[in-house]
Design brief:
Elements lengths: L2 H6 L2 E5 L3 H13 L3 E5 L6 E6 L2 E6 L2 E2 L10 E4 L10 H7 L5 E5 L5 H5 L7 E7 L2 E6 L2 E5 L6 E4 L2 H9 L7 E4 L2 H22 L9 H21 L7 H10 L8 H7 L10 H11 L4 H24 L3
Parallel strand pairs: 1-2, 1-6, 2-5, 3-10, 6-7, 7-8, 11-12
Antiparallel strand pairs: 3-4, 8-11, 9-10
Helix pairs in contact: 6-7, 6-8, 6-9, 6-11, 7-8, 7-10, 10-11
Bound molecules: NADP nicotinamide-adenine-dinucleotide phosphate.
The site of NADP nicotinamide-adenine-dinucleotide phosphate (NAP) has 27 residues, from helix 2 and strand 9.
């Protein structure tokens, strides 16, 4: 290894080895440019990683106890948003004054969720556009679905993140209007996820006329809130979003649909909850989103209680 390669070699920690963390871990391991530690609740020595035509068995360095972690150059957080708080013990061990943090989660409040756990770190919010799936406990698949896999706000931190991922298959979009991109992704999420989770049906359910009407009304509220929050939406943003969602394969599920079927807690506060909270802040009424939030919170809380009552002590 040359001196330059040694100097650019970074210590990276990926927190959360699910669909998205698995995609990130697989790409970083395939590129082989950095020292990667996976922070997980369930240690795993080897993963099978599929991306496009490639499939590889990759050794992993996993840690299950934060006590064994030490400071790194980059933390990449890829848990569901509602699990963010539970990662505090990892952040306490992984961050020092030079650590940078990329947050690969849905929603719009990435910095607010993460900064309290690492007050001095620079935080890079990222919107994820790849499809990541943990097919089996040791088998992960990543699929490209659009022109780029990650979008981040343009700037020095985005450049550093791009350099970190150099040699991977990730295409990174550096946006000058990240807020609008974040809200556009949120718009898709606040119809596709709640409707599939509540109906326990895949995306094909959105093609029913009555559901289309409901989605449009939910989107109208969300668009008004987004505009108040500073997103620069098009005139016909709600209809445009619905038209986009209707192009998705009808037999595809959403993560909230799968979490609902698996009786897991739902990422509802970071999605619909973000619309309702911002609506209150900007005095925009959100009765439909509030109703969806109340229903899905009840399901999520019941699932959470089931998970905790299944834990043996
Ligand atoms: N999957 C996709 O295609 C996709 C696409 C776009 C955006 N997103 C967004 O990306 C984010 C990540 O989604 P995902 O699909 O990767 O979720 P996921 O498959 O549920 O994976 C999250 C992982 O985080 C782990 N975790 C939770 N708390 C932890 C803790 N305290 N310490 C260590 N690990 C912890 C979980 O571990 P356990 O296995 O032990 O529960 C799980 O493996 C979400 O915000 C999601 O909305 C996902």
């Amino acid at each position: 290894m040359t001196q330059a390669q040694l100097l650019s070699r970074q210590k990276v920690a990926v927190i959360g080895l699910g669909g998205i963390g698995g995609g990130m871990a697989g790409q970083l391991m395939l590129a082989g440019k950095h020292d990667v530690t996976i922070c997980t609740r369930n240690p795993l020595d080897v993963m099978t990683f599929e991306s496009g035509e490639r499939a590889a068995r990759l050794p992993l360095n996993t840690l299950a106890d934060p006590a064994g972690a030490s400071p790194v150059d980059w933390v990449i957080l890829s848990t569901k948003a509602h699990d963010t708080g539970a990662t505090a013990p990892w952040f306490a061990r992984l961050c020092n004054s030079r650590t940078r943090v990329a947050v690969l989660q849905n929603g719009v409040e990435h910095e607010a969720r993460v900064q309290p756990m690492c007050p001095t770190a620079e935080i890079l919010p990222a919107i994820v556009y790849y499809n990541g799936e943990r097919i089996r406990p040791d088998h992960f698949r990543m699929r490209r679905v659009t022109d780029y896999e990650l979008a981040v706000p343009a700037g020095d931190l985005a450049d550093a993140f791009s350099a970190l991922l150099d040699g991977t298959e990730f295409r990174i979009f550096k946006s000058d209007d990240f807020k609008t991109m974040q809200w556009r992704k949120l718009l898709v999420n606040v119809v596709a996820n709640p409707v599939t989770a509540l109906t326990r049906q895949r995306l094909g359910v959105l093609h029913r006329d009555s559901i289309k009407e409901l989605c449009l009304a939910v989107l109208d509220e969300a668009v008004e809130v987004g505009r108040a929050a500073g997103a620069r939406f098009d005139e016909n943003e709600a209809q445009r979003t619905l038209d986009t969602v209707l192009t998705y394969p009808g037999d595809a599920g959403t993560s909230m649909y799968f979490d609902c079927l698996a009786s897991k807690p739902l990422e509802i506060e970071a999605l619909t909850g973000a619309i309702v909270a911002a609506g209150k802040r900007f005095q925009v009424l959100t009765p439909l989103n509030s109703a969806l939030l109340a229903l899905l919170k009840a399901i999520s809380d019941a699932n959470e209680n089931t998970v905790s009552s299944n834990v043996s002590v």
